[in-house]
Design goal:
- The structure holds two protein chains of two kinds.
- Helices cover 0% and strands 60% of the residues of chain A.
- Chain A is mainly β.
- The termini of chain A are far apart.
- Chain B is built from no helices and eleven strands.
- Chain B is globular.
- Classes of the chains: A mainly beta, B mainly beta.
């Protein structure tokens, strides 16, 4: 499982509240990712990080921000949650190199915004 | 923009059959392709990775092929078992380094005992 944990695993919140999801890895991987999974859309990339304090936007970044102050932690923040952000959120890391770099995923966080 | 399509969306077969899951992508300039398995309510488990220079990869009863020029990959499952029931996802990576994956919507597979 590449030593990836996500917290919380489940969260219910109300529209307009801020929410922060945490991804923690134990194996010092440089690249980390946040995806969301929705019925009918599959998995889509939100943000990614290529090092401490180095992040960039993915396909569906509006309404989300990220931070990476330590190699092992990658935080996803919903500044003001909306019902459209109800989803399952997955963190991933990339391990390997030279064409064999493989992405491994965490167990996911199920977020419900009421 | 890279798009990934998986056909069929759902498949139900009796135990013991050999089966093929299909994945197509619109831009043949890929870095690698991964097949994943996802059980209900769970995360993704990486099954196979094929580099852009490779034609196929095998792991146990699973064999994945890649034809970059036609934008296609197939996942072959031999002698299917009820424990193979899951959703199978195909994902392509356009570049190395920090590039993320572009996913298909998956094939939901049910193996009947």
């Amino acid at each position: 499982d590449a030593g990836i944990t996500q917290s919380p695993r489940h969260k219910v919140t109300e529209t307009g509240t801020p929410v922060t999801l945490r991804c923690h890895q134990t194996e010092n991987h440089r690249y980390m990712y946040w995806y969301r999974q929705d019925p009918g859309h599959g998995l889509r990339l939100i943000h990614y990080s290529y090092g401490v304090k180095d992040t960039d936007k993915g396909e569906v970044s509006d309404g989300y921000s990220v931070s990476r102050s330590k190699t092992e932690d990658f935080l996803l923040t919903l500044e003001s949650a909306t019902s459209s952000q109800t989803s399952v959120y997955f963190c991933a890391i990339s391990a390997g190199q030279g064409g064999r770099d493989t992405q491994y995923f965490g167990p996911g966080t199920r977020l419900t915004v009421l | 923009k890279q798009e990934v399509t998986q056909i069929p969306a759902a498949l139900s077969v009796p135990e013991g059959e050999n089966l093929v899951l299909n994945c197509s992508f619109t831009d043949s300039a890929i870095y690698n392709l991964q097949w994943f398995r996802q059980d209900p309510g769970k995360g993704l488990t990486s099954l196979l990775l094929i580099q852009s220079s490779q034609r196929e990869q095998t792991s146990g009863r699973l064999n994945a092929s890649l034809d970059k020029s036609s934008g296609r990959s197939t996942l072959y499952i031999a002698a299917s078992q009820p424990g193979d029931s899951a959703t199978y996802l195909c994902a392509v990576r356009v570049g190395g380094g920090a590039d993320g994956l572009t996913f298909g919507k998956g094939t939901h597979l049910i193996i009947q005992p």
